[in-house]
What does this fold into?
Amino acid sequence: MKCFSIKGLLAILIIAFALPFSSTAAERALKIGLGDPIDSDQGVLALRFKSIVEKTSNGRYKVDIFPAGQLGDEQKMVKDSRRGSIDGAVVAVNNITPFAKSVGVLTLPYLIQSFDDAVTITTGELGAKWRDILIKQAGVRVMGWSYSNFRVLTNSKKPVTKLSDLKGLKIRVPKNAIMIETWKALGAEPIPMAWPETFTALQQRVVDGQDNPHITNYTMKFYEVQTYTSEVHYLFSLQPLIFGEKFFRSLSPEDQAMFTRAGIEAQQANLLFSVTESNKAKQNMINKGVKAMDIVDEDKWSQIAMDKVWPKFYKDVGGKQAVDDVVKALGR
It folds into this structure.
């Protein structure tokens, strides 16, 4: 993994997004849904956004947050944000790609290899690119990103330290074609499943494992139903705060700027939280009895992913050149 500077990353965010703001809007209560619990990294992003908006607008906006899938699964929340039955949501980017396939670049295995990559790919010209695509294709606008770290593998069946250990392992995955094909290519048996069903499926051994960042695994209490955690780096979990574009365009220019700035500051807070809290969450899992291990041959995993998975999705994500452009922008 590459080295990085927290101050440097925050500076990138500030430069990439800084906007002045004020507020002039009628009183309104906003409804934001989360797939994860309120004490997750999704919650950090949403709570900071709430605090800034309510304070900056002098209470003329009230932000109500509904965590842990109270408003439905994440793909449903994307749909509901687009049509305006809720105002916004924090969702994993893989749950937005069904509505904007070219954003699936962000879920290609082993594309993002560090926090530096994650910030670079979501700010500046690349960040603007995904924002515009999601507005046009999905009808939602990204207000800020949650940097949730890499999706490590947990399971209750056996230790996983090398590629061959994946054989016969049933892994819950989101309903995302790239993630499904990735685990197939690596030799596991992926089982597509909605997020709210995951804990029960693990508990009842319908599936053996799942993959999510340490913070998510701890806040979801997966230590109650999982025995092992393996430090895989195949996918960096990006979880944007989205608002329906129709709602955003209904705001005055001053309030659009206020919401944009609130998203930037919430994104900065989330980045710092993720950098500092991920290892704590991993240690908490270990303290709860989960056995942690590293992958000894992950170079094989990444080569399989790039050779066998990437080509299958070039057409969906805008062509091989589009992927090559992102790789080049990441300095590789």
